[in-house]
Amino acid sequence: VVTIxxxxxxxxxxxxxxxxxxxxxxxxxxxxxxxxxxxxENVSWSxxxxxxxxxxxxxxxxxxxxxxxxxxxxxxxxSAVKAYSTEGNKSATLTVTSAGTSQNxxxxxxxxxxxxxxxxxxxxxxxxNADKTTATKGETVTWRAVxxxxxxxxxxxxxxxxxxxxxxxxxxxxxxxxxxxxSSNGDKSATLTVTSxxxxxxxxxxxxxGGSRVAVYDPTLTVNSSSNSVQADGGTLQLQTIYDxxxxxxxxxxxxxxxxGWSSNxxxxxxxxxxxxxxxxxxxxxxxxxxxxxS
Length: 295
Fold this sequence. Notes:
mainly beta; 3-stranded mixed sheet
């Protein structure tokens, strides 16, 4: 209202109308610190370049998997951190309030090319190996998972391989190793399948030396020499027994002469010591062929 006064003292009021005075609109944006993330990895959503209003702001967050900021709305909630426990596209909305007015912002990923962050299960990693490089037929070989990672941190294991290798209750968390007693000779291999959060990965196992197979052999006991002669009536010959645990020599052979049990199938032709100086043959009073055995 304006009051007009004339020179003679007369006054008159005039109504000039209303003028609306308001704060400028709230401006800005919000974004994540990642384009993609793994399960249980922190994603940070933050307000960007907030302006307008009266210069004092409170922030609130909503979004996938109940995104929020503790204590919101608050001036301290300009960012919100969330570790997602499920896969999928995750989105966020920021609400900024100033002088009683609110503005919503749909957030983008770090690159700004999407309104969501893709959360995925990390690839399953690791390996598997055996506790032996070679084994004797009838000897147990243990295959085991090694340094399994990725996935969601919870795993089930299954095994396949030579001679129907398997774990009794596979797939299960308890099958991270499996023992197999092989009843046949040959190269033995194993494959481990690890499952986590619906994803699987297969691993071809190594032997204890890093090779791809465990070789299974028959052990052998050899008498040296296998054919020889001794003079009758008191001639002597010392024999030796060699034990080869896998039948082919990869592992160290052993002289087991003194621990073997010795016998002769015809003591008239030759005898063999089975106590002192084991393996010593003495010629008898008859001639001919005789078989000397060690066990």
